[in-house]
Amino acid sequence: MVLTQSLCARIITPTTDYGGSTFDVLKYGAIGDGNTDDSEAFVKAWQDVCTSQDNPTLIIPKDKTYFLQPLRFQGPCKSATVKVELGGTIIAPKNMEDWKWAQDNVLVWISFEHIYGLVVNGEGQINGQGAPWWKEYPNDESKRPSAFKFIKCERLTISNLTHYDSPKNHMGISSCKEVFISNLKMIAPEDSPNTDGIDIANSSNITIKDSTITTGDDCVAINTGSSFINITGVFCGPGHGISVGSLGKNGEYAEVEDVYVKNCTFTRTSNGARIKTWEGGNGYARKITYEDIEFIEVKNPIVIDQSYNPKIYEDVGKGVEVTDVTFHNLRGTSTKDPIQLKCEPTISCINVVFDNINITRIDKEKSHPSYIS
Q1: Considering only CA atoms, which of 97, 165, 98 is closest in space to residue 131?
Q2: Which one from 218, 240, 305, 324 is the annotated catalytic residue?
Q3: Does domain 226-373 have CATH number 2.160.20.10?
Q4: What is d(CA 286, CA 276) in angstroms, rounded to the nearest whole number?
Q5: Is position 217 annotated as part of the catalytic site?
Q6: Does residue 240 carry a catalytic annotation?
Q7: 267 with 297: CB under 8 angstroms?
Q8: What is the pLDDT of residue 369?
Q9: Which residues pair with 47 in a beta bridge?
Q10: Fewest Cβ atoms nearer than 10 Å: which of 13, 62, 180, 267?
């Protein structure tokens, strides 16, 4: 059973260390020994946080490890700003059979929903204990839970956290507005399946900066309904790059626009700057820029693929339009052809600009550069 917050409140004497009321999970019964289930204490503390009007902060103290079952921290809350200060480590159940799900069986470990002005920060760690899930469902991500998900949050700030070993994607941003993400570390083995760093969907005005993402899939994946996405100073690798898509699966309508990726470094990733759409889809991916990017031994540095996982559809020539894409000042080394354009002839890629591209292919027998200016 997933534990959720209710509308009842208890009075806690506030302190002013965080500029408002503070609610320490230890005072609500959390043990923090890494074995005792602390879920109920977190829920009770959240009840008071969400009903407080005094800029409340949920305190998760450092030097302790908190074992948590799937939890939903639900709003709306009464204060215009709500903070979560993660100092310690939170861990998911180690074994798959120990996870306790709600009746709706939503596969998310920790979610924050319908909260305005949420700030999640601290120097704590988040361990999704994903290894058993990777082993049991290596080819079926639909059966594995995401670690963290933010749903319908506005004016959201996330910073300074370290995420390990999510069963699936480490963080999802879904139907959110005005999100600022910085100084995160996301770490999972290179062969861990579908362990994306940050997945964005149906969200706008998202900034991601100064973070390191080393996982088994996309460092950042930008999915349908997303616009005004700004990604700067991200170190990616290993992983599958920073991707727009995939878009248009199963003939679906998709739309992504105004994406700007700058000053990022890709190290030994399978892909770098990538746009991927399915055959038979509909909609558009437009106004996308990758600028000032460095590649270090990247397999496929620049990819536009309009036949990602191709499938036969009755609507010949149908697909997601890719327009107004710029690759500017991209440099480094690759282990395959630096630029791969797989544009469908009947749909095509329109107004794709390559400016000052200097990527050298390296392999055992030969080395030759690709220059476009």
Answers
A1: 165
A2: 240
A3: yes
A4: 12
A5: yes
A6: yes
A7: yes
A8: 52
A9: none
A10: 13
- Alpha-carbon distance 256 to 224, whole Å? 6
CB 60 within 8 A of CB 85: yes
Looking at residue 326, its pLDDT comes to 98
Q: Model confidence at 4, in pLDDT bands (50, 70, 90)? A: very low
Give the model's pLDDT for residue 334: 96
Is residue 144 within 8 Å of 131, Cβ to Cβ? no
16 and 54 in contact (C-beta within 8 Å)? Answer: no
Q: What is the fold, at CATH topology level, of the domain defined by 1-217?
A: Pectate Lyase C-like (2.160.20)
Q: Return the percentage of the chain with pLDDT > 70, whole number.
A: 89
- Can you say whether residue 166 is alpha, beta or left, with left for phi > 0 and alpha for psi between -120 and 50 degrees? beta
C-alpha span between 237 and 275 (Å, rounded): 18
Report the pLDDT value the prediction gives residue 312, as an integer from 0 to 100.
56
Q: What is the dihedral of CA 102, 107, 110, 116, to 10 degrees?
A: -90
Q: Are 70 and 99 in contact (CB under 8 A)?
A: yes
190: which DSSP letter? T
Contacts of 218 (CB under 8 A, 6+ apart): 196, 197, 199, 239, 240, 241, 242, 243
When pLDDT is averaged across residues 130-136 and rounded to a whole number, the result is: 98
Q: In whole angstroms, what is the distance from residue 110 CA to residue 15 CA?
A: 27
Composition of the chain by helix, strand, coil, percent to 5? 10, 50, 40
Dump the DSSP string for 318-366: -B-EEEEEEEEEEEEEESS-SEEEE--TTT-EEEEEEEEEEEEEE-SS-
Distance CA 133, CA 175 (A): 27
Question: Please, which pLDDT band fits residue 7 given cuts at 50, 70 and 90?
Answer: very low
Sign of CA dihedral 263, 153, 145, 73: positive
Domain boundaries, the chain: 1-217, 226-373
Radius of gyration of the chain (CA): 22
Annotated catalytic residue: which of 196, 217, 305, 324? 217
Coil, strand, or helix at residue 28?
Answer: helix
H helices present in the chain, as ranges = 39-51, 131-136
For residue 270, the SS3 value is coil
CA-nearest of 241, 237, 223, 232 to 261 is 232
